[in-house]
Amino acid sequence: MICLGLESTCDESAAALVDDHGKILSSVVKSQVSSHARFGGVVPEVASRLHLAYLVPALREALLRAEVKLTDIDLIAVSHTPGLVGGLLVGTTLAKTLAWQLDKPWLGVDHLLGHMLAPGLETDMKYPCIGGVFSGGHCNIYLGKSALQWSLLARSRDDAPGESFDKIASLLELGYPGGPAIQKFSMSGDSKSYELPSPVPASLAGDFSFSGLKTAVLYLVKGQGSRKALCREKWPDLAASFQRRVAQSLAKHLCEYAMTHGVGHIYVGGGVAANSELRHEVQEQALKIGVNAVFPSIPLCMDNAAMIAWAGVQQYKETPQSFPLNIDVCARSTMGMEPR
Ligand code: KG4
Ligand code: ZN
């Protein structure tokens, strides 16, 4: 079986072809970053228009690279939730049109399920597990019982970690996207310079909040009351301390959940999973408690369509039915929110 995956939830227009064993036949990602960078973040209307321009060329390129014809496709999977509605509509309309034209089944996939199952494109995922999606829009920790059964354990009540990286990068005049910029800038800083507040609650019961951490960084940079603004030479130390605090806190929480639920595997996905400090911290803390922690390779952490196709394959294996053509897109994910 060959599954076409389409991804257009945020600022990447992507198409990929994946077989039913999870082999990636081709994966094309057309990034819109350069168009949004001057605004310091993603502009939804610009993103929708660029998806219109980029998605079909991404599909053509994916077919060419895999040497596959449109008529060879057996299944079409598209991320139809969560994300920016304009982008979701572009991807979902393309998926429905292809399904109707080719008379093939189509499925809507939750983008977060795509991130959670991305490690499965490179390794056999084991269940039960703890899964973390840390991206520009989400900070969710799940208990995974099987590929399609996830329960939401924790989420952020305000920013996602990627969003905080982007905002702190903007404050430090590092440009957009902020995550890779902070990672690079931090290399010349001392991550032990500042003890910043943690974004995770003291107990596993509460929600995440990145406001205190962001405000602490803001006050240090701009000064507050009688305290003077930090000189620019200290900014790399501050960036490194911020990055370390996020990495340590998320790693601690993932490991605490793994211990509480008695599971032996942690999987992490989403753009922030590309962060080297987070990868190092999670591996180190997981090793101490005898838990296996797995991150996808960097391109599979970022938004891509291979993870959507792979999630689609697994959904279709479980329920081999096409979605009706009147299924709509949805800006918010409800994955794992069923009563536990
Ligand atoms: O998963 P993703 O590509 O898109 C969403 O679904 O949101 O994540 C994008 C986010 C951005 O906020 C970006 O700054 C962050 O991931 N990011 C990183 C790194 N690379 C990307 N954050 C920290 N360190 C990185 N190396
Ligand atoms: Zn994403």
Strand tally, please? 10
Measured between the Cα atoms of the first and last residue, the distance is 34 Å
- Beta-strand residue fraction: 15-25%
* Strand order in space, largest sheet: 3-2-1-4-5
Q: Sheet bearing the most strands, described? A: 5 strands, mixed
What Rg is obtained from the alpha carbons, in whole angstroms?
A: 20 Å
Share of residues in helices: 40-55%
What ranges have pLDDT less than 50 throughout 5 or more consecutive residues?
A: none
Instruction: Return the average pLDDT rounded to an integer.
Output: 97
Q: Which small-molecule ligands are present, each listed once?
A: 5'-O-[(R)-(carboxyoxy)(hydroxy)phosphoryl]adenosine, zinc ion
Order of helices and strands: EEEHHEHEHEEEHHHHEHEHH
Which terms summarize this structure?
340 residues, binds 5'-O-[(R)-(carboxyoxy)(hydroxy)phosphoryl]adenosine, binds zinc ion
Give the gist of this structure.
The chain is α/β, with parallel strands linked by helices and 340 residues long. Helices cover 41% and strands 18% of the residues. It has a 5-stranded mixed beta sheet with strand order 3-2-1-4-5, sandwiched between helices. Strands 8-7-6-9-10 form a 5-stranded mixed beta sheet, sandwiched between helices.
Question: How would you describe what is shown here?
Answer:
By secondary structure, the chain is α/β, with parallel strands linked by helices. The chain contains eleven helices and ten strands. Strand 6 (129-134) and strand 7 form a beta hairpin. The chain starts with a strand and ends in a 22-residue tail after the last helix. The mean pLDDT is 97. The structure holds 5'-O-[(R)-(carboxyoxy)(hydroxy)phosphoryl]adenosine and zinc ion.
